[in-house]
Amino acid sequence: MLAASVLAAMAAAPAWAIDFQAGDVNIDLILAVSAQGATFKNGPDGETDSGGNLLGFGRLNFEWVSDTGRVYGLRAETQNGSRRSEALAADEIYAYFSSELGRFELGRQDGAADVMSFHAPIIALGQIRGDFSEYAGINASLSPTDTRDSPKLVYLSPPVRGLRFGVSYAPEFTVNKDAGDPRRRIIQKDAVEAAVQYSRPIANDWSLGASASLTRGNSDPQTQRRDLSAWSTGLELRREELVIGAAYVNNGDSNDIAAVDEREWNAGIAWRGEKWGTAFSWARNTSIPVDVTLLGVGGYYSINEHVVLRADAVLVDEQPRTRPGGWYSVMLLEVGVEL
């Protein structure tokens, strides 16, 4: 029933892609739509429910490569509907420049801690950090609490003997800035993200990587929230399409009104192929108000070059400190169309 309703909703949904040259500038335009359906429980003691979402996506990229190999570009992504999956989320616009000195980005874009942290791999609908939380439950952190897509300047160094680093600066990171109650606002000023990666090949075409990252920011006193202060370490083992990753995250009391002391372990394995992919991930997130365990499995399958199926199943175990908890589940199915 769920699959049939999703497929029916997609039947007349168009998508377009344009890739052409305007002089020396390459222009890439993608327009796509997806229909998503879900069945879930509203918490351990909640009733079984269902829901869905119709999502639109657009990406426009201008890029020029000079005779010396330097790259200049402008990229904009937008969407309607709500995406929790980092693999599919889009709300960015930024200019970029790449050379032998590294890559510079300016605009609304993810920061260094988010981009460079190794952690449990996720694909398609995101598993433990995915679209399931649009219906029930909360996402895993995977990496330190960061500045999301706030306006910022980002620098990512080129790799030197397997070592690279990144740093980003956001003058202001805000959520619910105009909320009537100041305590519902998040306003972090002068937020900095920094990260370092080291990767090296090991036996039989495997590579091993390690990362460390941190975020810092100053909370506006009107919000009564704590400063942004978080860090993580991660490992990644990779061989062609196979990726294994894990991380420890210490978010402390970042952005919180009360002390929560949030910490997380996460781990997972993924196979990312051109036609299909699958992933399993796990996270254990502990804090003063509640402990949460997440188990997620999902993947994607390309029916042809224009149509892709995505699916996730996530188990959530919530154990509040002040009342009984328990397990519940969220199951998602999505059909996407793109040319």
Care to describe what's here?
With 339 residues, the protein is mainly β. It has one domain (96-338): Porin (Beta Barrel). It contains two helices and 17 strands. The chain has helices at residues 2-10, 112-116, and strands at residues 16-22, 25-41, 48-65, 71-80, 92-99, 102-108, 151-156, 163-175, 186-201, 207-219, 228-239, 242-252, 262-272, 276-286, 290-302, 307-320, 326-338. Strand 13 and strand 14 form a beta hairpin. The longest helix has 9 residues, at 2-10. The protein is globular and about 65 Å long. Mean pLDDT is 91; it is low at 1-15.
Low-pLDDT parts are 1-15
Written as H for each helix and E for each strand, in order along the chain, the element string is HEEEEEEHEEEEEEEEEEE
Total of domains: 1
Rg calc: 21 Å
Give the class-level CATH name. Mainly Beta
Q: Treating each run of at least 4 consecutive H or I residues as one helix, how many helices?
A: 2
What is the 3D shape? globular
Outline:
This protein has helices spanning 2-10, 112-116, and strands spanning 16-22, 25-41, 48-65, 71-80, 92-99, 102-108, 151-156, 163-175, 186-201, 207-219, 228-239, 242-252, 262-272, 276-286, 290-302, 307-320, 326-338.
Which properties best describe this structure?
339 residues; Porin; 16-stranded antiparallel beta barrel; disordered N terminus
